[in-house]
Amino acid sequence: MKKGILTLFILFVYNLSFSQTINQFDKEGKRHGIWKKTFEGTNILRYEGAFSHGKEIGLFKFYKNIRKKAVLTASKQFNENDNKAYVKFFSSRGKLISEGQMDGKSYVGEWKYYQKTSENLLTLEHYNDKGNLEGERLVYYPNGQIAEKQNYINGELNGVSIWYSVNNVVLKEFIYVNGELHGISKIYNSKGELIVEGQYKQGKKHGIWKYYEGGTIVEEKDFTPKGKFKKKN
Predict the structure, then answer these.
(1) Which residues on neighbouring strands pair with residue 143, listed in sequence order?
(2) Is 5 helix (H, G, I), strand (E, B) or coil?
(3) What's the DSSP call for residue 228?
(4) Is residue 212 within 8 Å of 193, Cβ to Cβ?
(5) Cβ atoms of 82 and 75 closer than 8 Å
(6) What is the pTM of this model?
(7) Any residues with CB less than 8 A from the CB of 73 and at least 6 apart, and which?
(8) Left (φ > 0), alpha (ψ -120 to 50) or beta: where does 214 sit?
C-alpha cells in the first residue's frame, strides 16, 4: 500500500515538473509548449504564451519593463487554423487602448480605439484583407457624438467627409477622390450657417470660391489659372 502511494507521489511530481517545463523545442527544432522570455539581463517577463510545433496558439501576453516591473502592454488570442489573432493594446495603467484582429502584422476587419478617460469609443475603423482602411471610419467626441465621418477605398479617402460639432452641427463637408480633395467643399459656422463654399480640383482650390456672412455673399475669389481675386461690396 505504501509502495503504491509512493509511486503515485513520484508520478505526480514528475508530471508537475513536466507541465511546468518551458522554452522547449520539438524534434524538428520548432518551439513547442509554454514559452516565456525576459528582458535581456533581467528576470522581468517580456512575453509568455504557448506554441504548437512552431505555431502560436491560445493567449499570448506582452509586457513592458516599467520601473523594473512587467506591465501588460498587449495580448493576442491565437488559434491553430491561420495567422490571425484578436489583439488588445493597453496603457501602462492597464486601460484598454484599442482592440481588433490582426493577420500577421496587418490590421484586418473592425478596429476599435477608446477615449483616454473613459471606455467610450474614440475611433471605429475597418480594414480589408490587405491591411488597408476600407469603408466608413468614424471619430467620436467623449460624449459619444460623432466628430468625423469619412469613407475609404483600399486605404485612400473617397467620397464625402463630414465634420461635426459636439452639438451635432455640420462644420465641414469635403469630397475626396483617390485620396485628394476633388469636388464641392462647404464650411459652416457653429450655428450651421454656410460661410465658405467652393471647388477643389485634384487637391487644389479651383474656380470661384464664395464667402458668406449672415447668408449673404460678401466676397468671391477666383482660383482658376490666371484667375483674378474679386470682392463683392
Answers:
(1) none
(2) helix
(3) -
(4) yes
(5) no
(6) 0.85
(7) 62, 63, 64, 89, 90, 92
(8) left
